[in-house]
Design goal:
heterodimer; A: 143 residues; Alpha-Beta Plaits; six-stranded antiparallel sheet; 5 helices; 37% strand; B: 439 residues; alpha/beta; GMP Synthetase, Chain A, domain 3; four-stranded mixed sheet; globular
């Protein structure tokens, strides 16, 4: 259920997103999803890629500091209330979302939500108990 | 003589002591201070013992060369009061300056010490042609730093009107200068350049204000800066020298001839030594300035290594003062940085970074000067150990670094978290300080 997301520390300057993207391209790694959390001075660039181990290795070889984080991917129907239903499953559980991001799946009328929880295992239990469909990395990364 | 000249001359009287008398005063005071330090300061006595010396071995001023040196690390190692030679109840003031690591150094003053300090600061200002009737604005920081209070009491003792503006708020400084008709300013030279620019932007021509003199110190500057200041503001710029370990501002100052800084030798005995070997050098040779406080009570400094590189100028100044002069201080023999008048050592930055992270990340200090004000940026590479995937945690790291650096350095610095392996390394060793300030 857990998806390996890789994160990079980058400075908030021109070209600092392009450079790691190029490293991934050269390593033949496909970027499935990308999210940039930024402050005025720096940012954290988060990727979900076709092969996280190869990506991490290629980036580290170029001097980047790479962090691998477990996240969960939820497939929701791309319709009003889709997100609210998922979040509703967490009501009253005390489970905290560290951050989340979403992207539309080009394959159809579905959206994929990526969640990072303070406690991933507890989140898996609660979401599954509420009938929320968690994607495996195989499902997420298939072409 | 005009009344103002008489006043100046009377304030400067000790500056003109015949050389024979001056040397006799120095020797008397040297013997007394060595005796006092030997009796009261354990570290000094131990070092004298190691050399088989007692105060009775000081027969002439040349014998000072046999005495042990005192260094900044001695001040740090004996923090806070290990070198105090007076009973603590006689200590009436404490000031603090930067040490080479996290701990600052402390300097203590008795009532008599403050009187000496005030008298030398007064002599500095008198030598710059200031007197009763002048309005002197002090824009050095007031507080633990010796700059503000040192200049303040000197100006008051001179009988001048003092405006204790302290540092910062340039527009208010200019308003005070203009409204009060300030005739002299005490601050760092870079800050005065900033004030000139600010005045321009406020539509005020400093050349039209009554100000005629600036007494600038607490940081290295150049003849080029002097010309810029004088040409753009119409004032006469003076270089003043001092350091907290010895007393504060007032160890030496230029007179109106501007040919070196007279050292107030009746209180501070200057020597020049080879910075590496510590061997004394003849007057005229460049080396490290070593100073002995000849009559300091609370904290006598015997042969204090200032790390400032200069030379004692040969010959006598045309002004008639018998006090020897040193050249403008151009550089130091250690890696100390002077930022807005505050002494900073790169090792202090390391101490603060270590405190937060436990290990030392690669870092770099970048110094710039914006609008005449020094800015210090510490760039810290984000290592795997420091990096987390959460913005909140990174902000927390940033805040912890900021807190530790502010506390250790005592001045505000800008922290930049930078990507790993991006600080340039030369032969595996990073260049720690990039100084982009143009003096």
């Amino acid at each position: 259920m857990k998806i390996h997301q890789i994160s990079l520390f980058i400075e908030n300057k021109p070209g600092h997103v392009a450079a790691p993207a190029r490293v991934l391209a050269e390593a033949g790694v496909d970027i499935r999803a990308l999210y940039l959390a930024d402050t005025q001075q720096y940012g954290i660039l988060r990727f979900i890629v076709s092969d996280w181990e190869r990506a991490a290795k290629a980036l580290e070889a170029r001097g980047y500091v790479v962090k691998v984080t477990d996240v969960l991917a939820v497939l929701v129907t791309d319709r009003p209330g889709g997100l609210a239903d998922v979040l509703g499953a967490l009501d009253g559980t005390g489970i905290n979302i560290e951050y989340m991001y979403a992207f539309s799946d080009v394959r159809g009328d579905e959206a994929i939500l990526i969640f990072c929880f303070a406690n991933t295992d507890a989140a898996i239990t609660s979401l599954q108990a509420a009938g929320v469909k968690l994607m495996t990395s195989k499902e997420l990364l298939k072409n | 003589m005009e009344a103002s000249e008489v006043a100046i001359h009377s304030a400067s009287e000790p500056d003109y002591l015949p050389v024979g008398e001056l040397r006799a005063v120095q020797l008397d005071r040297l013997r007394a201070v060595v005796t006092r330090a030997w009796q009261q300061v354990k570290l000094f006595r131990e070092r004298m013992d190691e050399r088989g010396l007692t105060p009775a071995d000081v027969h002439s001023l040349e014998d000072i060369r046999r005495l042990p040196f005192t260094t900044k690390s001695d001040l740090r190692d004996t923090y806070p009061f290990g070198l105090v030679a007076s009973p603590m109840e006689d200590v009436v003031r404490l000031h603090v300056s930067s040490g080479t690591t996290g701990k600052p150094i402390v300097v203590a003053y008795t009532k008599e010490d403050l009187e000496v300090w005030t008298s030398v600061a007064k002599r500095c200002l008198a030598g710059c042609g200031l007197h009763r009737g002048d309005i002197i604005q002090v824009a050095y920081g007031y507080g633990l730093f010796t700059g503000g209070l040192g200049a303040h009491y000197g100006a008051e003792a001179l009988g001048a009107t003092v405006v204790p503006a302290s540092a910062g708020k340039a527009d208010r400084q200019i308003m005070l200068m203009k409204d009060f008709g300030v005739t002299a300013m005490c601050c760092t030279p870079s800050y005065f350049l900033h004030l000139i620019e600010c005045a321009e932007s406020m539509g005020i021509d400093m050349k039209k204000l009554p100000i005629r003199a600036g007494i600038f110190g607490a940081e290295p500057w150049t003849e080029g800066m002097r010309r810029r200041i004088e040409q753009s503001s119409g004032i006469e710029a003076f270089d003043i020298y001092g350091l907290s370990e010895i007393i504060g501002p007032g160890v030496g100052c230029e007179c109106r001839r501007h040919q070196g800084l007279h050292i107030f030798e009746d209180h501070f005995y200057p020597e020049i030594v080879d910075a590496e070997t510590g061997e004394p050098l003849a007057d005229g040779s460049e080396g490290e300035l070593v100073l002995t406080t000849l009559n300091k009570q609370a904290m006598p400094m015997i042969r204090y290594r200032t790390r400032d590189i200069t030379r004692i100028l040969p010959g006598v100044c045309e002004c008639g003062r018998t006090l020897r002069r040193i050249d403008r201080i151009g550089r130091r023999s250690d890696d100390m940085l002077i930022i807005r008048g505050v002494n900073i050592f790169p090792s202090q930055v390391e101490t603060a970074l270590l405190e937060v992270e436990g290990t030392l990340p690669h870092y770099q200090i970048v110094l710039t000067r914006e609008h005449g004000l020094d800015k210090m940026e510490v760039q810290v590479e984000v290592t795997a150990q420091m990096f987390t995937d959460k913005i909140e945690a990174m902000q927390g790291l940033h805040d912890r670094l900021q807190g530790a650096l502010d506390r250790v350095l005592g001045i505000r610095v800008r922290i930049s978290l930078v990507e790993a392996n991006t600080i340039e390394r030369s032969e595996g060793k990073a260049k720690r300080v990039i100084d982009r300030r143009s003096l």
